[in-house]
């Protein structure tokens, strides 16, 4: 079974999560000093996660050719699953901190 559709889906989903995380970073940057100071220790984790997502996207692009089979991308799929799980937790934590009612507004 060919993996091309799976690869494109993983790439698009990682890109979408990366955009959400960038939005969170922009929201954090707009916080007043005291509130921003409380979340600054987590900023480095967020930037590391963005770099990890960039690496995952590059890996998917490099390893998925029209001939690639679904079994050939097992490692990339596992890394993708881990990245998405981490992104969900970080986004949920950030949204709770920022206040879901104010997020994105």
Q: How would you sum up this structure, described in words?
A:
- This protein is mostly helical.
- It has one domain (about 5-100).
- It has three helices and no strands.
- Helices cover about 80% and strands about 0% of the residues.
- Helix 1 packs antiparallel against helix 2 (about 35-65), helix 1 (about 5-30) packs parallel to helix 3 and helix 2 (about 35-65) runs antiparallel to helix 3.
- Mean pLDDT is about 80; it is low at about 100-105.
Q: Summary?
A:
Helices cover 78% and strands 0% of the residues.
Give the distance, in angstroms, between the N- and C-terminal Cα atoms: 43 Å
Write the H/E string, N to C: HHH
Number of contiguous helices: 3
Task: Name the structural class.
Answer: mainly alpha
Tally of separate domains: 1
Strand fraction: under 5%
């Amino acid at each position: 079974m060919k993996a091309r559709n799976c690869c494109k889906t993983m790439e698009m989903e990682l890109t979408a999560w990366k955009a959400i995380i960038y939005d969170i970073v922009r929201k954090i940057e707009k916080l007043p000093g005291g509130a921003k100071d409380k979340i600054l220790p987590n900023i480095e984790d967020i930037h590391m996660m963005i770099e990890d997502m960039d690496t995952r996207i590059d890996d998917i692009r490099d390893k998925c050719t029209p001939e690639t089979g679904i079994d050939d991308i097992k490692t990339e799929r596992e890394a993708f699953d881990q990245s998405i799980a981490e992104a969900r937790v970080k986004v949920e934590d950030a949204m709770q901190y920022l206040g879901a009612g104010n997020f994105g507004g």
